């Protein structure tokens, strides 16, 4: 069992992971609507990854406490351009990182070693998430939001496929 405080915090993160998936699904739809199929593909893979993250939280909470699902906020549905989508993505991933770090700090404060160990996977994942998004954002800043550079990045993002990690259900 986890403390009531930890259970509440874990459930809040579960719901934020579901919101994150929703954000990326909306971004995928917008990118598709404006003809950026590669960007749509990348955001759809990100949606799938966020759903896997939510599933990991769901399963962990089920093992240690009670799941409490909340309403999911409606995400933004339109963006000025691809650059704005990735600026928003980086900001969102930085918020996820801050939330995961707060959870880890709470686990340490409560001497909840099992939860702290569980959260280490997410801490490492967030380093990768932010790095990947920053790399794409840097390319967009160099290439611009229109023209051949955007076409090349769109083509590159179209190659992403989501492959769940071996421990996805853990």
From TrEMBL:
<keyword id="KW-0963">Cytoplasm</keyword>
<dbReference type="GO" id="GO:0005829">
    <property type="term" value="C:cytosol"/>
</dbReference>
<dbReference type="InterPro" id="IPR012347">
    <property type="entry name" value="Ferritin-like"/>
</dbReference>
<feature type="binding site">
    <location>
        <position position="93"/>
    </location>
    <ligand>
        <name>Fe cation</name>
    </ligand>
</feature>
<feature type="domain" description="Ferritin-like diiron">
    <location>
        <begin position="1"/>
        <end position="144"/>
    </location>
</feature>
<comment type="similarity">
    <text>Belongs to the ferritin family. Prokaryotic subfamily.</text>
</comment>
<dbReference type="InterPro" id="IPR041719">
    <property type="entry name" value="Ferritin_prok"/>
</dbReference>
<feature type="binding site">
    <location>
        <position position="53"/>
    </location>
    <ligand>
        <name>Fe cation</name>
    </ligand>
</feature>
<dbReference type="GO" id="GO:0006826">
    <property type="term" value="P:iron ion transport"/>
</dbReference>
<keyword id="KW-0409">Iron storage</keyword>
<dbReference type="GO" id="GO:0006879">
    <property type="term" value="P:intracellular iron ion homeostasis"/>
</dbReference>
<feature type="binding site">
    <location>
        <position position="17"/>
    </location>
    <ligand>
        <name>Fe cation</name>
    </ligand>
</feature>
<feature type="binding site">
    <location>
        <position position="50"/>
    </location>
    <ligand>
        <name>Fe cation</name>
    </ligand>
</feature>
<keyword id="KW-0408">Iron</keyword>
<keyword id="KW-0479">Metal-binding</keyword>
<dbReference type="InterPro" id="IPR009078">
    <property type="entry name" value="Ferritin-like_SF"/>
</dbReference>
<dbReference type="InterPro" id="IPR001519">
    <property type="entry name" value="Ferritin"/>
</dbReference>
<dbReference type="InterPro" id="IPR008331">
    <property type="entry name" value="Ferritin_DPS_dom"/>
</dbReference>
<dbReference type="Pfam" id="PF00210">
    <property type="entry name" value="Ferritin"/>
</dbReference>
<dbReference type="GO" id="GO:0008199">
    <property type="term" value="F:ferric iron binding"/>
</dbReference>
<dbReference type="GO" id="GO:0042802">
    <property type="term" value="F:identical protein binding"/>
</dbReference>
<dbReference type="InterPro" id="IPR009040">
    <property type="entry name" value="Ferritin-like_diiron"/>
</dbReference>
<dbReference type="GO" id="GO:0008198">
    <property type="term" value="F:ferrous iron binding"/>
</dbReference>
<keyword id="KW-0560">Oxidoreductase</keyword>
<dbReference type="GO" id="GO:0004322">
    <property type="term" value="F:ferroxidase activity"/>
</dbReference>
<feature type="binding site">
    <location>
        <position position="126"/>
    </location>
    <ligand>
        <name>Fe cation</name>
    </ligand>
</feature>
<comment type="function">
    <text>Iron-storage protein.</text>
</comment>
<protein>
    <recommendedName>
        <fullName>Ferritin</fullName>
        <ecNumber>1.16.3.2</ecNumber>
    </recommendedName>
</protein>
């Amino acid at each position: 069992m986890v403390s009531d405080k930890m259970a509440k915090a874990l459930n809040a993160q579960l719901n934020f992971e579901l919101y994150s998936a929703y954000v990326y699904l909306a971004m995928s739809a917008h990118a598709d609507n404006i003809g950026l199929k590669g960007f749509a593909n990348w955001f759809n893979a990100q949606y799938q990854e966020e759903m896997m993250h939510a599933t990991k939280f769901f399963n962990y909470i089920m093992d240690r406490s009670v799941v409490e699902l909340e309403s999911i906020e409606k995400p933004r549905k339109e963006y000025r351009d691809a650059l704005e989508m990735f600026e928003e993505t980086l900001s969102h991933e930085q918020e996820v990182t801050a939330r995961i770090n707060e959870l880890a700090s709470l686990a340490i404060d409560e001497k909840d070693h099992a939860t702290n160990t569980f959260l280490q996977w997410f801490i490492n994942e967030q380093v990768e998430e932010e790095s990947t998004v920053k790399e794409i954002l840097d390319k967009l800043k160099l290439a611009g939001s229109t023209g051949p550079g955007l076409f090349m990045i769109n083509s590159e993002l179209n190659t992403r496929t989501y492959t769940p990690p071996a421990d996805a259900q853990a």
